[in-house]
Specification:
Distance between the termini of chain A: 12 Å
Strand content of chain A: 15-25%
Largest interface: A-B, 57 and 65 residues
Helix content of chain A: 40-55%
Structural class of chain A: alpha/beta
Strand order of the largest sheet of chain B: 10-7-6-14-25
Oligomer: heterodimer
Largest sheet of chain B: 5 strands, parallel
Radius of gyration of chain A: 15 Å
Number of strands of chain B: 30
Radius of gyration of chain B: 30 Å
Strand order of the largest sheet of chain A: 2-1-3-4
Chain lengths: ~150, ~600
């Protein structure tokens, strides 16, 4: 195995540092994350952003697979209602999100590990605050049960 | 058999922007250990001439067929690096970016170790996606050099003339019997106090006599199919339906004036409570005379209430006008949330007109905030010099209006500065009301697939950078259809929209989105869900299978996510490519393991 970030960090004596996968839409949330950078709003290093064109693109499996592979949290972030670059992709995501939560719960994972949030391109501060808050929340929950399984292999 | 990926990774120091936090040499060494990476280097500025040359040379020297740049955001720099790849003979879509500045060094300046670790993760994820990238082509379509302009107000007239003068054929349609829009119904326009006809009539004459323009009044757009370059449009007018093909569309169909509901400030109850628009008409006809006092009240129906997201959600979905009527009715009661920008100047203009004719008339403007920008400040001073009185009232506390036995209007309110109750006896009360979105325009937006903004107006592609473009290629907006504007601003936007529309028409061709949906016909069962949900009408079920008309597809990927058979995938953002990034993050494999 190549150097694996969480293995090092996850040694029992060290503090738990969660890994959060964030699917951000190109037009709002990703741009909001960019603005957090341009504005130098600091937030914890636990998030890894994956750019997609629209949250409407987020197939439930993309969320569930990330959890299965051991993500401690999954964030889906897109445009505010009414602001979708593609008119209604975020509404479609919102509708899917209920059953994503149910599926997550059924799989024995705390549904709080998945979140759907709206961040506009002008909300760098909101993005930073969201990452801070979500990181804290996942720290409280502890490592994902799937991550522990993967790591014990 | 596909060629094995040879990935080159270029890691940018960005001066000290990245290099000051992230240990770039360490990340570079790390990148060399990743699967399929055959070359990795760091640059002081990858986006500089030297950096771009390094990419181009490395592509040739190391026979690279994929390039990853780890630097800033793809939202600003992807086009630049893609162009460099293209110059070196590599398809632009075989390029991937890792954002280690905005998402790493700038947000974690005090945690260099963790930031370096995060940068490594992000590079590893980008490399994993890069290995799976495929070349894409942006389809080229021909553009008809014919335009349709909807709405013959000052914006539409200007746009039509501008394009016609460049040699393009223009169809100009107007739903009213006469061209000229709102401007023609105004009396004088600010700040010149010229007759509105001095502005509109020459425009109308020029349009009517132009050989390249066909003006059709009492005509509306009934239906439109197609895409940039070839919009198949059905117009409906007095002589029935007519089909035309156009390359571009400019929507300049304007807005309406808010009419207060009956009883608001006693509007509709007392004859002498009128709107500024009605005052315009009375001034034109000389019906105001020399009254003792006129009171104007600002922001009636503006800067109040809030449009709920659920109301807007209904716009693209609702199939009946019923819902829209309901929304517009709610706004009529509660008011519209935005500043309409023109009402302050309108009130001052009419106050000046009255004062100049009848200096003895006491004109009082009750306002919450007065917004007179640029040279209009002088216009405001001119009103002050004419002794127009500006009284700041308490916003959100509407004045009470009653009629005295003598037939005068008694206006009772508060002066915000003194905090005292004020009372006026007036001959006329004039309500300054905002420009509001039209019901027709909301339906038109749905037909053309233009998003509606949170204020109910059609939305620009970008408020600052693309103010007359829409998110629909080949469709542009001008005038008050995208929000309140005065006459000169409408004319400016008309010219701007014409200039933008002329680009594809002048080139006669345009390249469109490469990131589109692809259907695996073996998996597709023709259920039609994609057809149902696509906001652009790209998928169509033919012979029991979904066919994506690429030219209509905007690449959002909603159909790919919804397809119950997982038969639809997205170019450049496929499930396997996205999941490769997730996997690279969470269960990384070394180069050796991948080859094994």
């Amino acid at each position: 195995m190549v150097e694996e970030p969480f293995e090092k960090e996850n040694k029992a004596e060290e503090k738990f540092e969660p890994l959060i996968v964030a699917y951000c839409c190109n037009w709002c949330a990703y741009a909001g994350a960019d603005l957090a950078g341009t504005s130098r709003f600091e937030y914890p290093t636990n998030i890894r952003i994956i750019r997609v064109m629209c949250t409407g693109r987020i197939d439930p499996t993309l969320v569930l697979e990330a959890l299965r592979m051991g993500a401690d949290g999954v964030l889906v972030a897109g445009c505010h209602p009414g602001d979708c670059h593609y008119q209604k992709g975020n509404y479609m995501m919102e509708k899917r999100f209920d059953y994503i939560k149910k599926a997550v719960k059924t799989a024995g994972i705390e549904p709080e590990r998945v979140r759907l949030e709206w961040v506009s391109a002008s909300e760098g501060g909101k993005f930073a605050a969201l990452v801070r808050e979500m990181t804290e929340q996942i720290k409280q929950l502890g490592p994902s049960p799937f991550r522990l399984v993967n790591n014990s292999k | 058999m596909k060629e094995e990926p040879h990935i080159g990774v270029f890691i940018c120091q960005c001066g000290i922007n990245i290099g000051g936090v992230v240990n770039v040499p360490e990340v570079t060494e790390y990148a060399k250990t990743l699967p399929y990476v055959t070359h990795a280097e760091d640059n002081l500025y990858t986006c500089s001439e030297a950096g771009l040359t390094a990419i181009k040379e490395a592509i040739k020297q190391h026979n690279l067929n994929r390039v990853v740049v780890a630097s800033c955001t793809p939202r600003t720099h992807e086009p630049l690096f893609r162009a460099a790849c293209k110059e070196a003979g590599l398809n632009a879509y075989l390029f991937e970016m890792a954002n280690i500045r905005e998402h790493v060094s700038w947000v974690h300046p005090h945690e260099p170790d963790k930031a370096t670790q995060k940068a490594k993760d992000i590079v590893r994820m980008a490399v994993a996606k890069a290995a799976l990238l495929e070349p894409q082509t942006e389809p080229e379509v021909e553009v008809k050099d014919v335009s349709l302009v909807i709405g013959a107000g000052v914006a539409g007239l200007t746009a039509a003339l501008s394009m016609a003068n460049q040699g393009f054929k223009v169809y100009l349609i107007e739903k009213e019997k006469e061209p000229g829009g709102i401007t023609r119904r105004l009396y004088k326009i600010y700040p010149t106090l010229a007759d509105s006809s001095e502005v509109v009539e020459p425009l109308i004459e020029a349009v009517k006599s132009h050989k390249n323009i066909e003006l059709m009044t009492s005509t509306t757009l009934k239906d439109v199919l197609g895409y940039i370059g070839n919009f198949n449009s059905v117009l409906t007018g007095p002589n029935g339906d007519r089909e035309i093909n156009v390359g571009t569309i400019i929507v300049a169909s304007g807005s309406s004036n808010y009419t207060p509901p009956k009883g608001l400030y006693q509007y509709g109850v007392y004859d002498h409570v009128i709107t500024q628009r009605e005052l315009d008409e009375k001034l034109r006809r000389g019906e105001i005379g020399e009254p003792e006092r006129i009171i104007m009240i600002q922001c009636v129906g503006a800067r109040k209430g809030e449009i709920q997201p659920s109301e807007l959600e209904a716009f693209p979905k609702s199939d009946t006008a019923e819902l829209l009527r309901k929304i517009l009715k709610a706004r009529k009661e509660e008011g519209w949330p935005y500043c309409s920008r023109i009402c302050c100047m309108n009130a001052i203009k009419n106050a000046i007109l009255i004062k100049e004719k009848s200096p003895k008339t006491d004109v009082v403007i009750l306002f919450g905030d007065l917004r007179v920008y640029k040279e209009y400040e002088d216009f405001y001073r001119r009103a002050r010099d004419l002794e127009v009185r500006f009284v700041r009232h308490i916003e959100g506390v509407p004045e009470e209006i009653a009629q005295t036995p003598e037939g005068k209007l008694q206006v009772m309110g508060y002066d915000a500065l003194s905090g005292l109750e004020v009372e006026f006896l007036a001959d006329w009360v004039v309500l300054s009301t905002p420009l509001i979105p039209n019901k027709d325009e909301i339906l038109l937006a749905r037909m053309l697939k233009i998003p509606i903004g949170t204020d109910g107006f059609m939305m620009e592609a970008h408020l600052k950078l693309r103010p007359v473009d829409t998110n629909v290629d080949g469709v542009f907006i001008a005038g008050t259809v995208s929000g309140p504007k005065d006459v000169s601003e409408s004319i400016i936007s008309g010219g701007a929209a014409a200039a933008r529309a002329s680009i594809p028409m002048g080139n006669r061709k345009v390249r469109t989105e490469a990131i589109t949906a692809v259907v695996d016909e073996d998996l597709c069962i023709g259920c039609g869900l994609c057809e149902e949900i696509c906001p652009y009408g790209a998928p169509k079920i033919e012979d029991g299978k979904s066919k994506i008309r690429e030219i209509l597809c905007r690449g959002c990927g909603s159909c790919a996510a919804e397809c119950p058979r997982r038969a639809i995938t997205m170019r450049h953002f496929g499930d396997h490519q996205i999941l490769a990034q997730v996997k690279a993050l969470l269960v990384p494999q070394s180069a050796k393991e991948v080859r094994a």
